[in-house]
Amino acid sequence: MVNIAVLVSGGGTNLQAILDAQARGDIHNGRVSVVVSSNDKAYALERAKQAGVPGVVRRKKDYASGAEYCRALAQFLQEQDIGLIVLAGFMTVLDEEFCKNFENRIINVHPSLIPSFCGDGFYGLHVHEAALEKGVKVTGATVHFVNAITDGGPIIAQKAVAVEPDDTPEILQKRVMAQAEHILLPRAVSLFCEGKLSVSDSGIVSISE
Ligand code: GAR
What we know:
36% of the residues lie in helices and 23% in strands. By secondary structure, the protein is an alpha/beta fold. The chain has one domain: Formyl transferase, N-terminal domain (Rossmann fold). It has a seven-stranded mixed sheet with strand order 3-2-1-4-5-6-7, covered by helices on one side. Helix 1 packs across helix 6 (169-193) and helix 5 crosses helix 6 (169-193). It binds glycinamide ribonucleotide (GAR). Glycinamide ribonucleotide binds at residues 8, 10-14, 44, 88-89, 109-111, 123-124, 127, 177, 181. N(1)-(5-phospho-beta-D-ribosyl)glycinamide binds at residues 12-14. GO terms for molecular function: phosphoribosylglycinamide formyltransferase activity.
């Protein structure tokens, strides 16, 4: 059984999708054992509590530097015997040492079809604002392994979502979450826990069903 840590910063709808999948029995060979929030006011913490999962707060500003924050977080996760880290709307950047420590064991969900609208500065609602500004007719979500390059790690799964003429960033965000993120992320978590994801030397993910 893989111990899963879900790292959050905000509303936690992706966390909820994982918890719901777990309650349905759709996460095979894994369970969410802790939720770590970078924000003590995140509603995601309430979702964890309601599901009976321990929630802890780890804020970067409580540490002397980003490197110290990452080291302390890595140590905490190792003590908890975490096998998979899921970034579900986690808005704090993790450094290279952290990413190396957990190579191919960190999964992130990003609200666009990478390599579009990704990298530094593209997070949350900003991603949908940029997609609407560009006038793309199709957007979507990507689930990928995390490395030191922001949104640059091996891609596990992607799903396209239509952009509608009257979309606002908020409306588009909700559609991308419902039609893509909340479906892709729990599925990728389960595939990981079942040992069905492998990454080639050149960074290509293959899925054995
Ligand atoms: C989600 O749309 C997620 O893809 C995005 O933040 C939102 C968090 O929502 N993450 C990023 O932009 C990371 N680059 P949630 O707290 O309701 O899951």
